[in-house]
Specification:
7 strands; single chain; mainly alpha; about 750 residues; globular; 33 helices
Length: about 750
């Protein structure tokens, strides 16, 4: 272990290693019964000082024997000196739970430091082998100059529009499930951080850590205890009525965060596809009503749509440019995505598959021996995984004292449980074939696909186009045989109501009608470019192909897990659809230019300005952006079947305008109305209490019709005394007040006067 050092250095490092190991053994023996023979002290206190002295001596020795600072050499020596001690500590931590959490953190930091060293050595070896410097061709300043002032102004304008439309009516909305975060989980996270209760930072099974990190500043201005909604005897009680300021305190930091991260989409797209494709794709992303709408609410999906696509784009940039900084960025964004919602695990599956897709379709990869290509690609994927798990570990304190959460958050997560076995088996077979058989078996399979790759591209494009076409026709012809809205009304029980094909096609419905007609047009045209035999020679078309494959894979995953992908559940697909549309727009312009022999191509500034004009008009006419539905969708249908609370504020404002509003009792199918209503509010089924207290008004919404009908089924069947048939109000006509969400009759909020 010390063979590379001179004799004096060996002796010093050897003595330090033995002393550190002995010190750790004596310390661990106090807590581990199997090491009781080594208990020479009765208290832990002397060892804390001993570890501090040992750390200083180790660092001092490394510095003394180093003529100049080389962080990799310094770190490697320190890791070697402490290796036996760390192994003893690891045994102690596995055998006893009575150690202070600082030792769990120390073990984790040692593993991370070892990983950083191995990664740095690997990257250095890769650079040396290819005889190149891992740097961008342009400096940061030159990159900005290369974009041009008009393009930069467009990026600034589009980003500003995203923020302005996001800020509009930011507080006039009470979102379903949002109270779980702003009334409890966010404050709990920071409270437990302050109390060093690391285990308590596991605030959700999502896990939603990034939500707590991003919106945490809100806790400095508002106390969640003062605004928390409580339930008492069937009534919903608000401790304070100035809920708008409360929402603003938490939602504004998230909106600012997403707005600041938004230009990264342009940066990675420009690095991957070039300026024209990037500006088109970025404009489609930033002006998406659904993406603006989701950013207004406190929910993991509000951040997932940023982190997951950025991880994917950064990985694609790495595959194109070979610069390891993009691989590290991809890992960091993947770690952030995992910290947001475990559904991000699907990226691991896709990244593994992308290795083989890239070998099949990249014109230059076929020139590299497959064994060498696969070995390097798997090493790169391992580096990406390390960066992701390190990010996850550092920002999730619960993992510090329970490293097993790294497994339960990835392969062992609920969102991955049905896919993990197949993923593990395939990965294991690939690795075994690589190590024991020089990838011969994998190579044979891939060579077969190599001969059929054009057919495979046509099949994938055909599946996508067929699924899109069938979804459109089914919707336009009256939703027969599959009624997508009914299937999405209870998305987690979709398998009980439809066959596999129906469940799979249902996923396309929110996407196709949740994007603007312009994005839809270019999305449906995209597969036709795959018919060109040499389409893969274009980085942009190859990227479009990969993103469509990911979309199909994502929908397959949700279908296998028996979940219908409502808008929120597939929010990461929306920016990908926008990118595909941007790529297709550019290639359509190029095709038109060649077809008609035009002298000049339309400038990206001109085309993007038209996109901005149409996008701004759409947003201006969409008061509820998260519930946006395209003009291509018949008016009797809606997209946001399980809405997050659209129209609650407007219904409450109407009720507040009535005389004696403070003395009224209302029933509503969602608590969001209660947040803004000044009187008494109930969402229970305590019929006797409501009759006794004098129920005045009933508020119902389309998004809760299925839930209310299902919950009342037992009461109706048992003819519960005093039952109030709330389920009948959804189809009742002539309400006192009603609002059609984005002018869609199928998406409503109605207020009725209750009559005995």
């Amino acid at each position: 272990m010390l063979a590379f050092f001179d004799n004096q250095e060996k002796r010093v490092y050897g003595i330090l290693t033995v002393c550190n190991a002995l010190l750790t053994l004596l310390f661990v023996s106090l807590q581990v019964n199997s090491l009781a023979l080594f208990r020479l002290a009765s208290s832990n206190n002397p060892f804390y000082l001993g570890f501090a002295i040992a750390g200083v001596l180790s660092l001092g020795a490394v510095a003394y024997f180093s003529s100049q600072f080389d962080w990799k050499k310094w770190l490697s020596r320190l890791l070697l000196i402490w290796l036996p001690g760390i192994l003893i500590l690891a045994y102690g931590l596995s055998a006893s739970r009575h150690f202070h959490y600082i030792f769990w953190i120390a073990l984790g930091m040692y593993v991370i430091a070892s990983g950083v060293l191995v990664s740095a050595l690997f990257i250095g070896k890769e650079r040396a082998a290819e005889n190149r410097i891992d740097s961008e061709a342009l400096t940061c300043k030159n990159w900005f100059i290369a974009q041009g002032l008009p393009t930069l102004l467009l990026i600034l304008i589009v980003t500003g529009m995203f923020f302005v439309f996001g800020l509009s009516r930011l507080t006039e909305y009470a979102a379903v499930d949002e109270p779980l975060w702003i009334d409890g989980r966010i404050a709990k996270y920071w409270k437990n951080i302050g109390e060093r209760d690391w285990k308590g930072t596991g605030i959700s099974d999502k896990p939603g850590i990034t939500v707590a990190l991003v919106t945490g500043p809100g806790t400095f201005f508002k106390s969640t205890k003062e605004y928390r909604t409580t339930h008492y005897q069937g009534e919903v009680l608000n401790l304070k009525n100035d809920v708008k300021s409360y929402y603003f305190a938490f939602r504004l930091p998230q909106l600012l965060f997403v707005t600041l991260f938004l230009p990264l989409f342009y940066f990675f797209l420009e690095r991957l596809l070039g300026r024209r494709h990037a500006v088109f794709g970025f404009a489609f992303i930033a002006l998406s009503p659904v993406l603006i709408g989701i950013t207004k609410i406190i929910n993991p999906d509000s951040l997932l749509w940023v982190f997951a696509p950025l991880s994917l784009l950064s990985y694609l940039v790495f595959q194109k440019r070979g610069s390891f900084r993009y691989l590290i960025f991809s890992g960091i964004f993947l770690g952030l995505a995992l910290l947001t919602k475990y559904v991000a695990n699907i990226l691991f599956v896709f990244f593994l598959g992308l290795i083989f897709l890239e070998y099949l379709y990249h014109p230059k990869q076929a020139l590299i021996p497959f064994t060498r290509y696969l070995k390097k690609s798997l090493e790169h994927l391992a580096l990406l995984t390390f960066a992701a798990l390190t990010t996850f570990y550092i920002l999730f304190p619960a993992v510090w004292i329970k490293p097993m959460k790294l497994f339960t958050s990835t392969l062992g997560s609920q969102a991955f449980e049905k896919v993990a076995p197949l993923f593990l088996v395939v990965t294991l077979l690939i690795l075994l074939d690589q190590w024991l058989n020089a990838s011969r078996f994998t190579g044979v399979i891939l060579s077969l696909f190599q001969k059929l790759k054009h057919t495979l591209a046509w099949v994938i494009g055909g599946i996508f186009f067929t699924a899109v076409s069938f979804t459109l026709l089914d919707t336009w012809l009256g939703m027969t045989p599959y009624h997508f809205m009914e299937l999405l009304a209870s998305p987690k029980t979709i398998a009980d109501k439809s066959d596999f094909i129906g469940a799979y096609l249902t996923n396309f419905y929110p996407l196709l009608f949740g994007i603007t007609p312009l994005v839809f047009l270019f999305l449906i045209i995209a597969p036709f470019f795959f018919l060109k035999k040499h389409f893969a020679e274009s980085v942009a078309l190859r990227t479009s192909f990969y993103l469509i494959v990911f979309t199909l894979l994502y929908y397959l995953g949700t279908t296998v897990n028996h979940v219908g992908a409502i808008v929120r559940y597939q929010i990461i697909i929306f920016p990908l659809a926008a990118i595909i549309a941007g790529i297709t727009l550019e290639h359509c312009l190029t095709a038109i230019h060649k077809k008609f022999s035009l002298k000049e191509m339309p400038t990206p500034v001109f085309v993007t300005s038209l996109v901005i004009l149409l996008g701004g008009l759409t947003l201006f006419l969409t008061p509820f952006p998260l519930s946006y539905a395209s003009a291509l969708l018949p008016a009797k249908y809606s997209v946001d079947v399980k809405d997050m609370g659209a129209g609650s504020y407007e219904a409450a404002q109407y009720l507040n305008s009535l005389p004696e509003a403070k003395n009224m009792l209302i029933w509503t199918d969602k608590d969001g109305v209660c947040k803004f209503f000044v009187g008494r509010c109930s969402s229970s089924r305590n019929y006797a209490m409501m009759r006794e207290n004098g129920l005045d008004y009933i508020v119902v919404s389309a998004g809760r019709q299925s839930r209310t009908t299902k919950m009342m089924g037992g009461d109706i069947a048992n003819n519960k005394p005093g039952i109030i048939r709330f389920d009948q109000y959804y189809t009742k006509t002539n309400p006192l007040f009603h609002i059609l969400i984005n002018n869609r009759p199928s998406h409503f909020v109605k207020v009725f006067r209750f009559e005995q």
